[in-house]
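step 3/5: co-fold with zinc ion
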Amino acid sequence: MSSNKTNNAPLNVQAIKAFNDNYIWAITNAKQVALVDPGDAQVCIDFIEQQQLYLNAILITHHHPDHTGGIEKLRVYCQQKKWSLTVYGPANENIPHCDVKLSENDQINVLDAGFKVIDLPGHTAGHIAYFDNNDTEASLFCGDTLFSGGCGRLFEGSAEQMLHSLSKLAKLPEHTKVYCAHEYTQANLKFALTIEPNNKALKDYYIKVNDLRSKGQASIPTTIQLEKQINPFLRCHQLTVQTSAMQLNKSMQTTELETFTTIRRWKDKF
Ligand SMILES: [Zn+2]
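step 4/5: write tokens
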């Protein structure tokens, strides 16, 4: 057994709810916590104090304020506690107090885990994700790029860039747990069902998510395997999705990119 390796235990990940529908992901071990995209400092400080942890690291996926707004206050909080804090963020975006700037294939060690960085331009120009793949499981922290049943809006990047970014995520191991930054699943699945009304996996998942949400439970994390079955933005090569896109844009070519472009535009108005 590889019991002396540090990188073989499952990650312990907990959701901290923020704003209306954001999840700040807290990766913890017995003593420490790393926070992914802490847009709001106070909910994080409450979590840290409740669980009696030391804040060790902040991992940022992109520059939007609902992902970065808590950095300054958390930094001051750590200074007062005399804890050493490292802020990691995308090299190509302006992140406040970023200590380590990251891009494609960089590797970092945080708590007991090793993360590989994946460049994912599209939602913003410099968006990155953090991917941990160890002996027992794989986890992806992908901010606002891939959501369950959907994908991020194109604020800074092109449809081509976003499609390429999503195709990189679709190649990750099927069992990868996907920790995205918003609980948008129900609304995304309503849209997905208009694109693929006969997709059995999608219909089943919609029932399951409605049940979870009615009990106040999160639908996240999802998995790469599930998203490939139900997420229209990962299925633009499928005839069913291409046929639905054609209904909206009769002049389009039935390519993966034109299908993606068409349904992404449609979703913006849905
Ligand atoms: Zn964003």
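step 5/5: annotate
The chain has nine helices and 14 strands.
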